[in-house]
Fold these 2 entries.
Entry 1:
Amino acid sequence: MDSFAGEKPALRWVVHASVLFLVVLWVVPTLGLLISSFRTADQIATSGWWRALFPSEQNLTLRSAAPETQVLEDGLYVIQGKLFGDDQTVKISRWGISSREIDAFTPGETAELRRGGTITVDGDGNYRMENTEEFTGNRGARIFVTAELPPEFTFDNYQTVLFDKGSSDSMGRAFFSTLTVTIPATIIPILVAAFAAYALAWMDFPGRALLIAAVVGLLVVPLQLALIPLLKFHLNIGIGKGYLGVWLAHTGFGMPLAIYLLRNYMAGLPRDLIENARVDGATEFQIFTKLILPLSFPALASFAIFQFLWTWNDLLVAKVFLIDATGQTTVMTNRIVELLGTRGGNWEILATAAFVSIAVPLVVFFAMQKYLVRGLLAGSVK
Amino acid sequence: MTPALQGLLTIAIGVLGCVGYFYLSNQFLDKVLCPPRGPNAGRNINRANMIRPWLFLFPAIAALGLYLAYPVVETLRLSLTERVPGGGYQWVGLDNYAQMAAEPKFWEAMRNNMLWLIVVPAMSTAFGLLVAQLTDRIRWGNVAKSLIFMPMAISFVGASVIWKLVYDSRPEAEDQIGILNALYLFFGGTDPQTWLTIPFWNSFFLMIVLVWIQTGFAMVILSAALRGIPEETIEAAILDGANPFQIFFRIKVPQIKATILVVWTTITITVLKVFDIVFAMTNGQWETQVLANYMYDKLFRANDWGVGSASAMVIMLLVTPILIWNVRQVRNEGSPSLGGD
C-alpha cells in the first residue's frame, strides 16, 4: 500500500511518532504501579516512581560505629568504617555533621566534632574519626550525607502482601478465593452453553428462532437487575451467600454471550460433516462430543478467556453473592477496595496487592490474545 | 480442609455433575424412554429427536430464565412495592419512582451517566479508530496494538488503583508522586490539584479510566473492519487524487459505519453498568455519582429495595433501545452489540 498511497515520508514519521505517543500514554499508568510495587514505602512517598529508574540524589542520616569499636593507633584513638555496604556503589557529593548544615563539607574535608576530635568522609563513604582522648558515649556520631544512590528495588512488598501472617494475611487467602470462584465459573457455563449452542445450531425444533432472539436480547440485560431478586432467591432456597451462589450467578450471567458465540461458530461448521455422521448412525450425543466439541475448540477457548477475565476481575457479583459478614471468602478485587479505603496512603501495599490480582489475567491475556481477538471478532464482525 | 483443596473438590463435583447430567439424560432417552428398536422403533426415534433438543437446552434455558429473565420481572415488581416492617410487601404504585425523582443525588447520577454515555463511547471509538488506522501500515503495529489492548485484561478495580496513583496529590512542599500533578507542575501549574475532588471535571477523570480500558476493544474490532474494506475502493480514490485524510474520512469510515455502530453500542452497555470504577475511586462523592453506584448504595447501604429496584429499572430502560435494535439486527442477519460484561 505504501508505494501508491501517495504518502510523504514526513507523514510516515508523524504516524510512527503518534503511535509511539499513544502506546506510551497507554502503558505509563500501569508501568507506574508496577515499578511502585518494587519500591519501599519511603521511596514511594518521597519521590515519583519515574525517578526510581535512575540514580537519585538523596539526603541520608547515618551514624558512625559506636565508640566501643575505637582502636589506639600511635597515641590517637581512631574509629573507622564504611557508611554503606560493600554491594552499594555510592557517590557522596556533600556531607555534614549537624542537622542544620547537612551539606557543610565536600568529600575528603575534615570536620571538627563537637565533642572533640575530627572526622573525615571520602566520596565512597569511608570515614575516619580521630581523637587524642578516648571517644565516650555509647552511640556513634551522626553523619549527614547527600549522595547519589543507584536505583534500588525490593521484593519485600510481595513477601508482605502474599505471605505475611499479620494484617495482610488475607491477600494470599483472597487469591485462592478468587481462584475458587473463577475456575468452576468458567468451566460450567462453557459445558452448559456448548450443548445449548449445538441444539440451536444443528437441531430442528419449533421455537428455535425465538430462542435465538431471546438469547441476543438477554445479552444486554444489565446484571444490576438480577442482584436483589437472585439474592432473595438464594436465601430462600438455602444457598445463602457462598461459592455455590456465585458460581450459579456467573453461569447465568455468562450464558447469553457463551451461547451466542458458540452457536455462531458451530453454525459455521460444514453441514456435510454432521449429516454424514448422522447417516453413519452416530447419535447426537456422539456427534456433539466426538465431532463438534473438538472442532469448536477456538470458540470454546475464546469464550473461556472472556469468562475467565470477567469472573476474575469481577467485584459486584462477588460482593453480592459471595462475601458474607465473616469475610472469610473475600476475593482479591474486594480486598483491594478495602485497602483503598483503609490504607489509601500505603501505596506499597496497594500497588503490590493490585499487581498480584492483575498478574494472572495479564499472563492469560498475552498467552491467549489470539483467541481473545478471534472471539471478539466472531461476535461483532461478519 | 485448606481452601485450595476445597476449591479443587468443588470444581470436580461441579464439572462432573454437569457432564453427568448430559450423559445420563441422553442415555436415559436412548435406552429407557425411547429405545430405537422393537416394534415402535420408528416412532421412538422421532420422539427422541423431538425431546433431545430440550435435553441439550434445558440447563441453559433454566440459567437464562432464572438468572436474567426472571430478575427483570421481579425487579419491576419490587420497584412498585415496599417492604413492610413485619415482613411481606405492600403495593405502592409509583411511589418509589417519585421518591427517587425527588432526590438530588439521583439527578446527579443521571446527569453524570448522560455525560459518561456521550464521552466514553465517543472517545473510546475515536481512539480505537485512530489507533487501528495508524497501526495498519507500520511494522510494529501488532506490538503497539497488543499494548493498547492490554488494559482490557485489567479489572476495573485494578485500573482504579493504577489511575489513583496517576491522580495522586501531595502538598506543595513535597515531591509529587502522581504523574499528572508532576506534569502539571512541570508545565507551569502553580499548586498541585486533587483531581478527583474538583466537581464536574472529576467525572471526566473517572471516564478516562474506562476509555483507557475500552479503546483496545474498539481498536481490535475496527482494525479488522478496516482490513476488510475492498482494496479497489481505496485504489480508485488514490487514482482520483484523494489525500490520506480524504481516503480515511470519505472512503474508509463510511464503509465501516455498521461496525462503528456495533462498537459504540457495546461500549454504551458497558458504560451503563459501570460500577467498580466509581465505587473504588470516589464512591460517588464530590458529585461523581452514577446510576449503577447509586443503585448499589440504595440496595446495600440504605437497604431500600424499592428505590434501588426503581433505579435498576431506569438502567434497564436506557438499555432497552439497544436490546430491541440487537434483536432486530439478528433477525436481519446483522451483528448485535455484545453485553457480555
Entry 2:
Amino acid sequence: MKQLLSFTKKEFLHIFRDTWTMMIILVLPVVMMLLFGYAVTTEIKNTNIGVLDLSKDELSIKIIDRIDKSEYFSLKKNYSSFKEVESSFRRSEVGVVIVFDENFSENLLHLNNAEIQVIADASDPNSAKTLVNYVSNIIAQSLKDLNKAPQSNYQITPELKLLYNPLMKSSYNFVPGVMGFIIILVCAMMTSISIVREKERGTMELLLASPTKPIVIIISKVAPYFFISIINIITIFFVSYFIMGVPINGNILWISLLCLIYIFVSLSLGILISTIANTQLIALVVSAILLLMPSMLLSGMLFSVESMPVVLRGIAQIMPAKWFISAIRKLIIMGVDLKYVLKELGVLVFMGVVFLTISIKKFKKRLE
Amino acid sequence: MDEVIVVKNLTKRFGGFTAVDDISFEVRKGEIFGFLGANGAGKTTAMRMLCGLSRPTSGDALVAGFDIRTESEKIKANIGYMSQKFSLYEDLKVWENIKLFAGIYGMKKKEIAFKTDILLKELGFVSEKDTFVKALPLGWKQKLAFSVAIFHQPKVVFLDEPTGGVDPITRRLFWEMIYQAVERGITVFVTTHYMDEAEYCDRVSIMVDGRIDALDTPKRLKEKFKANSIDEVFYQLARKAERKAD
C-alpha cells in the first residue's frame, strides 16, 4: 500500500512536470467544448437575410417582420431587383433571400396560389438546407397564424415537433461527444503513452527487476488518469450546464456510474495498447488512428451512425465511444431511466473485461 | 555461504533458438564477476533469468540463496539492477529518484533521509540534490544510477554494460565506485564490452553462442590462451562463433 502511494505520487509528478501533458489533459477539454460550442456549430443564429418584395402588401410585410424578429434571422437587405440579389450573394452579405411575387396576397386570396421564393447560398449545402427549412417553417407558421393559409381542403400542413431538443441546439449533440472523446484521449492515449515511455527509457525493466508487483505498477500508472478523467467530466458538465445551458435531465447517480464504466473501458484499452506498442510513437499512432479518429467520426458525435455505409456502421459498433455517447445522450438529455441504457452499459462492461483480460495476459507473457 | 550465485545447466530457448545453452558457474561472495560476450551471445538473457525477469527453460540457479524458479520475488528484494539504458526518471529530482527506489526496496523514511545525505556527500552531489536528473551530465547520471542500484545494500548487484557511452575518465571513476561497493560487501556481476574493464574483474567468463567457453581469473585466462590481454583471449574465442551478432 505504501509502495502504491509513492508510485502514484511519482506518476502525478510526471504529469504535473510536463507542460504539454498538463495542457492536453486540462486545457484541451475546455477548448474543445468552447470550439464545438461556438465555432463548429450547426445551428442557425442571426443569419443575415435579404428580401425582394415585389408585392409590398400587408401580408408580405407581416411575414418579413416575423422572420426578422425570429432569433434565427435578421433582415439586412431590401432589394428592388433580381440583379441586386445576385450581387449581394456574391458579396456574401446574406445567407438567404426571400422573394415575394407581385400581387402576393391577392394571388393567395383569390387564386389560392401564391409564390414565395427562398434562395439560399448552397456552396455550403448543409447550412443552406437548414436555412431553407427554417425559413419555410416560419412562413408556414405565419400564414397559419394570420389565418391566410390556403383554404383548400386537401392542404396538409406538416408540423414538425422536435423532441428533447426543440431548439435544435447542437450543444446537446456535442457535449456527450466531447466527453467520449476526452476520456478516450486521457485514459487510453495518455495512459498507454506513459506506460510505453517507461519501456522506452528502460525504467520499466528496473521496476520489473525490483520487488514491485506488476499490478502495483499498473494501478499506479492508471490512478492519476482516473482522477484526471473525473475532473474532466466534472469540468465538461460544468461548462455545458452553466455556460452552454445544456440541461442535465437524468439521475446524476446513473450518469456517474456510466462515466465510471466508460473510464474503466478506456483505461483498460490504454493498458492494452501499452502491451502492444514498444515506442511512444506507436502508442500515439495506434491510439490516435484506431481510437481517437473513429471516436470522433463514427461515434455519432458529428455524423449520424444510422446513415453511414454498412462497413462503417459495423466499425462504429466496436467503438466504446459510440456506446457511451449513445447512453449518456439518453441519460442527460432525454432523462430516461437506467433500464433504457442497460444495453449500452452491458456492451461497455463486456468490452472493458475483454480488454483487461487480454492486456493482463499479454503483460504476463512479456515478462516471460 | 560462500557462493552468492550458483548456476546449474541453465538453458533458455525461444522457440527453436537456444539463447542460453546449458551454462553452469558460481559467483563467490564479494567478488567482481565479469560476464563477457559478443552482442547476441546470450549475456543479457542469462542475466535477466538471474534477476527473476525471465523464466529458464531448464536448469536451476540460486541467487542470494533463493531459487530463481520459485522465489523470484525474494531474489528481487535482495539484488540491485542497473540496465543497459540509463534508467532513472529524468523528470524527477535527484533526491526523488533516490527516495522512490529506496522506498521500493522497503527502506524506512528515516534511514532513506540519513543515507541520502551521506550518499550525496560521497558523490559530491550535495548542491545537486534538487536538480532534475535530466540536467545532469551523462557520467553523473551513470554514477547516480549505480548509487541508486546499491543504495539498499543488496547482496548482489547486476550491472548490464554500465559504462556504455561514457568517457574514459568517468569509466575509471565508475570502476572506483564498483570497488567501493565490493568493500561494503556487495558482490558485483557485470557485463561489459570493454575488454580493458575485464582486467579489473576478479574472474571473467566469456560467452560464445550461448555457452560459457572460458571462465577464470584474467591472469590465468591470458596464460591459458597465451595472450597478452583479455582482448586477445576474447577474439580467439569469439572468432569461433557461428551466431551472428544482432
